[in-house]
Amino acid sequence: MIHRLGALVATVSLIGAGCGATASPAASQALDSPPASTAAAGASLAPNPTPASSPVAPGPSFHTAGPLAEIRATLIPWKDGVNADANAILEVRNISASAIDTVAKYQDYTITDSAGGIQATGEFTNVYPYEIAPGAIGYVAQEIMVSDDTDPALFVHLTATTAFVKATHKDIALTVSDTANEPGLSGYGAATTGMVTNTSKIPVEEVAVAAFYYDADGNVIGYSFGGPNNLGPGKTKPFVTDTGTPPLNFRTIARTVVIAESLCRDGPCLP
Prior knowledge:
This protein is mainly β. It is built from no helices and 22 strands. Strands 4, 5, 9, 10, 11, 13 and 15 form a 7-stranded mixed sheet that branches. Strands 2, 3, 18, 19, 20 and 22 form a 6-stranded antiparallel sheet that branches. The chain is globular.
């Protein structure tokens, strides 16, 4: 049984490296289509989603995943001390005439090497935003860490299981403003700063802000995340996203998409 939870209204902000920008509504924001290549991902649809999955090699093309969405998958591995880390990112473009909602229960991933050997498995726990407007792009993303001597070069293929349904209602509205990129606070990679405002009547216990970084060719090169807690109705707080980013040079970022959402879909988190 799938429990339908309160959906989210998010605001997307596009910025260049080291620059600020004016926030624009997610409903009117759609990214440019990247050049064709070889990425794919699996999806299944409501009313009773049964997930389907397919192995994908990272690449710059969108592929149709049923009548509601197109998906582009990106896998970015790197070495962090003794850990093998990776960003697994699914860009989800809504190709339907109405808003769609992700079904978090079915957001799973498997990373394999070139011979098909499993290197990492788990669930995507981060969706930005939960609700995607017609023509807009949302993200399913995860920072993956393998705490051993695994070589990140073995992270080659990504198998993604996803599901989408038509969105039913909107409860929470968050906007972002005054966004800017800077070097990562952890000493490498990138971080994004700005302000997030709760424009709804529902208090948000934990705000999740994610920044997705693109190069000049339109390819995702990483993402970072963070966000404040306890954002009341009408209130504004600063945020910084400095977790999860791969070791990229922030000055090479050509474009950044910043999305704010409630970590817990209805606003307050359960005990």
